[in-house]
Amino acid sequence: MKYWNRSDSGVTRMDVRKLFRSFRYAWNGIAHVAAAEQNFRIHIMAALSVSGAGWITGLSTAEWIVLIILFGGMLALELMNTAIERVVDLVSSEHHPLAGQAKDAAAGAVLIFAAASILIGCMIFIPKWINLLF
Ligand SMILES: Nc1ncnc2c1ncn2[C@@H]1O[C@H](COP(=O)(O)OP(=O)(O)OP(=O)(O)O)[C@@H](O)[C@H]1O
To answer: Is residue 84 lining ligand 1, measured as CB closer than 6 Å?
Structure first.
């Protein structure tokens, strides 16, 4: 999708309306998944809870950056998972092994990222909590 149009003077200008329309479509996608998918709402709650714990515990800038990457990655992956589910349902209304494999592979990607996020979260928080306790 191009946001730069060549005007009569030869100068390339950004199509701002088109840009905002793209943002609106992306926002609609996020709002749809948030309304339709319980897992997405669970991830948002988890991100808010971990942020609260991080604020109380006290994290470095680098640790916040890591958490923000994990939150963003997790939510983005959940959106991709839903996109794959929708496309699979669209192209194959009947039961098909490939449809099941596509959905399961997408769900597996979410699971792997969630497991890695939990592991990294433990590596950040547990030593700090041990220091606070002893
Ligand atoms: N068309 C299909 N053909 C074969 N297996 C399917 C098909 N649709 C779903 N499945 C199997 O059933 C499982 C659950 O499918 P479903 O569409 O409910 O996905 P889900 O991950 O539970 O989605 P949601 O998060 O929306 O509940 C899939 O992971 C897959 O193994």
So the answer is: no
Sequence spans of domains, the chain: 1-36, 38-133
Calculate the CA 36 to chain-centre distance: 15
Give the pLDDT confidence of 45-98 residue by residue, as tens digits: 999 999 999 999 999 999 999 999 999 999 999 999 999 999 999 998 899 999
37 annotated binding-site participant = yes
Pocket test for ligand 1, best of 86, 103, 110 (most atoms within 8 A of CB): 103
Whether the full predicted model's pTM is greater than 0.90, yes or no, is: no
- Give the alpha-carbon dihedral of 103, 106, 107, 111, to 10 degrees: 170
Domain with residues 38-133, CATH architecture: Orthogonal Bundle (1.10)
